Amino acid sequence: MTALHARIRHLRVDGRDLVHDIDLRLPRGRWTAIVGPNGAGKSTLLRAMAGLQPFEGEVLLDGRPLAQWPSRERARHLAWMGQQETGADDLTALDVVLLGRLPHRPWLAPPTAADRAAAHAAMQATQSWEWRDRRLGSLSGGERQRVLLARTLAVDAPLTLMDEPLAHLDPPHQADWMAVVRQRVSAGHSVVSVLHELHLALQADHLVLMAHGTLAHTGAPADPDTHAALQLVFGPRLHIAQIDGRWVALPL
Ligand SMILES: Nc1ncnc2c1ncn2[C@@H]1O[C@H](COP(=O)(O)OP(=O)(O)OP(=O)(O)O)[C@@H](O)[C@H]1O
């Protein structure tokens, strides 16, 4: 069962191939982590899969080409959390989270009780409810990230794509983020995240490793082939070991 199938021959910007030769199926009802060195093309691939970046090829969402989805239906089906998003700094945290509910109601209609309940639940899940009346621009990096995560959760989409969702989060809130992801996945949703935190990516259900704009490996995080591929791409200074039954990756 595939939530999203990306076939990308080329993604060129200014005549440069940023991403190429991708044939990637993201499993439904699973958490997939995309990892790779700086500049490997992770964010570019994620943006292409979200329909935010043109490319030569095709992305199938639930078997239907992305371009054939009516935009509101697609926005209810695929939630997006980008990196370092700007533009909403003057809105209160609650209003930012309510933006996640826009695809659920008619154009210019005010939020319904169901929208408010979804926003409240999402802000409780990311422990950001106490800042609901504060402007987004006044929050710290981690606080802001938790509000943006709540906005993404409030969409309640079957597929969520997140680019570096753990940036600025302290370790307890990183663990909370994983718990939220686990809840969504156990409810049958699919989550895809670009992560730099390899020790957390190794807790995912499925790992996608990128290098030089294309796929270097896909597989289970516990698979020795996956570990060998990680060491090949990141180099011998990456040490992969098991602690308390969990795989971790440490820079040496
Ligand atoms: N708009 C753009 N114009 C030109 N080059 C770009 C553009 N966006 C990204 N790139 C280049 O494409 C390559 C891939 O960038 P991308 O942000 O996808 O990498 P990444 O794997 O997410 O990196 P990081 O881990 O550093 O966030 C990089 O070499 C980057 O400099």
Automatic annotation (TrEMBL):
<dbReference type="InterPro" id="IPR017871">
    <property type="entry name" value="ABC_transporter-like_CS"/>
</dbReference>
<dbReference type="Pfam" id="PF00005">
    <property type="entry name" value="ABC_tran"/>
</dbReference>
<keyword id="KW-0472">Membrane</keyword>
<keyword id="KW-0813">Transport</keyword>
<protein>
    <submittedName>
        <fullName>ABC transporter ATP-binding protein</fullName>
    </submittedName>
</protein>
<dbReference type="InterPro" id="IPR003593">
    <property type="entry name" value="AAA+_ATPase"/>
</dbReference>
<keyword id="KW-1003">Cell membrane</keyword>
<feature type="domain" description="ABC transporter">
    <location>
        <begin position="4"/>
        <end position="237"/>
    </location>
</feature>
<keyword id="KW-0067">ATP-binding</keyword>
<keyword id="KW-1278">Translocase</keyword>
<comment type="function">
    <text>Part of the ABC transporter complex HmuTUV involved in hemin import. Responsible for energy coupling to the transport system.</text>
</comment>
<dbReference type="InterPro" id="IPR003439">
    <property type="entry name" value="ABC_transporter-like_ATP-bd"/>
</dbReference>
<dbReference type="GO" id="GO:0005524">
    <property type="term" value="F:ATP binding"/>
</dbReference>
<keyword id="KW-0547">Nucleotide-binding</keyword>
<dbReference type="InterPro" id="IPR027417">
    <property type="entry name" value="P-loop_NTPase"/>
</dbReference>
